[in-house]
Amino acid sequence: MTQPLQIQYIPMMEYGDAWDKQKKLVKDIDEGQQQEHLLLLQHPPTYTIGSQRHPEHLLLGPEQLREQGISVFEIDRGGDITYHGPGQLVGYPLLWLDGSKGLDLHGYLRQLEQVIINYLSSFGVVGTRKPEFTGVWVGDRKITAIGVKFNKCRHRKGFVTSHGFAFNIKSGIEAEGFRGIIPCGIQQYGVTSLEDVTGQSMTVEQTARDIIPYFNEVFGYNGSIVINE
After folding, report:
1. Was 80 annotated as part of a binding site?
2. Domains and their CATH numbers in the chain
3. Which residues does the Swiss-Prot or TrEMBL record annotate as the active site (predicted)?
4. How many CA atoms lie within 13 A of 35 on its CB side?
5. Is 163 annotated as a binding residue?
6. Model-level pTM greater than 0.90?
7. pLDDT single digits (tens) 82-111
8. How far is CA 185 from CA 63, 68, 164, 177, in A?
């Protein structure tokens, strides 16, 4: 039996606004005031630093960040530093996990990876995992970074998830933002994009539309997308 899921695509949203929106939805879902959500969106150029807190993996100084118009946020998800920017599909699932789905943190991470792996397979692209690193890879290049938080419920059993995945869609995103950091603290491997691995021109909005059936299938939902212009 599938469950309802509210899905929104927002073409561009400041990182701080999206983080505030996530926190409000986590609270409302915990209190039973909102359905579970999946937010799909793009951010302006932003670096986010997760709970591992390795500031040395940010290679740009304050003046360079200002010149390039890149914001920096220290946030409460797991993981290290990553980049968000135009041309990348960011997904924030706000899901209530009460134990009935049999998902712990690691199981949830593997299912997020599986959504991307299944979607890539529709293009004949083999997405893989690396046991030592969270995320999805094509060869030795990361195409999707994943970092999440489990928010313990106050009003009912279980957790509400926040943060999520960053799926590189447009070619050139490596030059635009990833060269200013050591992505996720991983020096030995690079990053890639959906356009690079398929050789096809893509839009972020169309990818958001197309990935929903894969998310629904893996997680057992029946959500449909609403486009916020």
Report:
1. yes
2. 6-227 (3.30.930.10)
3. 184
4. 12
5. no
6. yes
7. 899 999 999 999 999 987 777 788 899 999
8. 22, 21, 18, 15
